[in-house]
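Moderator note: this is an archived Q&A kept for reference. The question asked for a predicted structure of one protein chain; the sequence and the answer are reproduced below.
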Amino acid sequence: MSKLPNVWVFSDVDSRLPEVITGGLQLGDKVSALVLGTDADVAMAHSLGAHQVFHLGEKPDTRIVEDYVDTMIHAADAHGRPELILIGATRRGKAIAAKLGARLQAGVFNDASELEIADAKVKAKHMVYGGLALGEETLCSQTAIVTLANGVFEPAAATGATGETVSLDFVAPKHSITCVERRQKAGQGVDLGKAKRVIGIGSGIVSQDNLKKAQELASLLGAEMGCSRPIAETEKWMERERYIGVSGIMLKPELYFAVGISGQIQHMVGVNSAQTIVAINKDKNAPIFQYADYGLVGDAGKVIPALIESLNA
């Protein structure tokens, strides 16, 4: 695969930084990481393979991440614009990508599931039509900005390497948003995309009592809990951060345990990279069984307690 001379990477979520740096190393000869955090975070970026780190400093609690776009622009003007800026596809990551695209007059591509360099241009693919197809685009602007879907690159392990660090002064935006208070949200901070085992809950779970049983099963399996869209947005039984699907979280676990999930394409595109899919559904004709490696036809309210009993035996 051909490479670009200079690639910048950024992630507002620490756990996504190893993957975006790995992607940068595969796509560029030189990788510069924009790091918002402590000196330890800078050292970690170097250790993961970044040749250069632009240190944005530590973020005050009253400042939002998007307010660092002007600082990033100033760095690009002072140190030369990269051919590619690779950003983790989080909500804030996409907001930053949009702002950078407008300011740099750069093409922006969101939720990339495949990336390559061809004829010195970035070619990217992502899911379209609710996951029914893959769309491919070539970004022809001087700088291409791409937000990276979870699981595209295998995160590299830290090596203890060092490199150049450039400290950047904060450049305040003309119009900023000041955070006056922060309140912890229940369930906030879960990084479902990194879980090795996930139990996904759908409408077939029927009741919150069954949901509690599913949580007990997850504990026994060492799994995280996820859900389909109706559970998060209609029933509101689980946090929005746990919603799996084309407009939610994209997973790449070793085991995905689907309980009471019908298997509509909008959900299944979120788990199509799972190594093993196990499904429980009382409808023997449910689409989920077309994707499952192992399927069990039965009422979740009866099957889950039986599984718990067997695991405890």
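Archived answer notes: The mean pLDDT is 92.
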